[in-house]
Amino acid sequence: MKFFIDTANLAEIKEAHDMGILDGVTTNPSLMAKEGISGTDNILKHYKAICDIVEGDVSAEVISTDFAGMVREGELLAEIDPKIVVKVPMIKDGVKAIRYFSDRGIKTNCTLVFSAGQALLAAKAGASYVSPFIGRLDDISTDGLGLIETIRTIYDNYGYDTEILAASVRHPMHIIECATIGADVMTGPLSAITALLKHPLTDLGLEKFLEDYRKSNS
Ligand code: G3P
Questions:
Q1: Is 34 among the catalytic positions?
Q2: What's the pLDDT score for residue 28?
Q3: Under the phi-then-psi rule, with left for phi > 0, alpha for psi from -120 to 50, and beta for the rest, what region is 112?
């Protein structure tokens, strides 16, 4: 399973990259705003800075909600770097835009997906990635991981190439469950990824090894 980091924070992206486990980055307008990035020029420059750190795909989201606007913005974003994946919302014009980009070899990530029907539409339109938001479904007492499982079955039934990008991942168990189900990619905060490192027996075991070394080498 590929590990993407869901942030526009350059220091966190670099930290994940330096660990050697980072396959890509996802962003959204809220994450860009959180970093204080505004204005088209600054936004485009920031995406370029992200692309310069990572080796994999970088999702950059359009703000327009009409077909012509999404195409205009998406083409501008795609020019920044070959790593850019145009992130398009799951609305009617978005589906149309995904087909447009797909026919022209521009990679897309269909975002704000909350149902299997939406995921099916994204795949039929030729999306490179589909992003079901599992954390936000869990927030409203709906089974986010169950949706990943259903989409996996549907895509496998018909051999769709669209990669399932489990988004809105909040904690390490989400990551483990996504890997168990067979999501192609997960995206989450750095804290959820580094939480995978943690086990008390690792800490205790290391402490004991070092203590024994110190005793026999003093
Ligand atoms: O980038 C989309 C998604 O990952 C958002 O996550 O935590 O805001 O629900 P969250």
A1: no
A2: 95
A3: left
Lookup: tokens for 149: 């499982």
pLDDT in tens, 89-110: 999 999 999 999 999 999 999 9
Asked if residue 167 has its Cβ within 6 Å of ligand 1, the reply is yes
Which of 136, 148, 178 has the most ligand 1 atoms within 8 A of CB, as the residue to mutate? 136
**Cα–Cα distance between 160 and 162 in angstroms, integer?**
6
In Å, what is the CA distance from 68 to each residue of 89, 101, 107? Answer: 14, 12, 17
CA distance 161 to 129: 9
Residue numbers of the chain with a pLDDT score lower than 50: none
Distance CA 7, CA 24 (A): 11
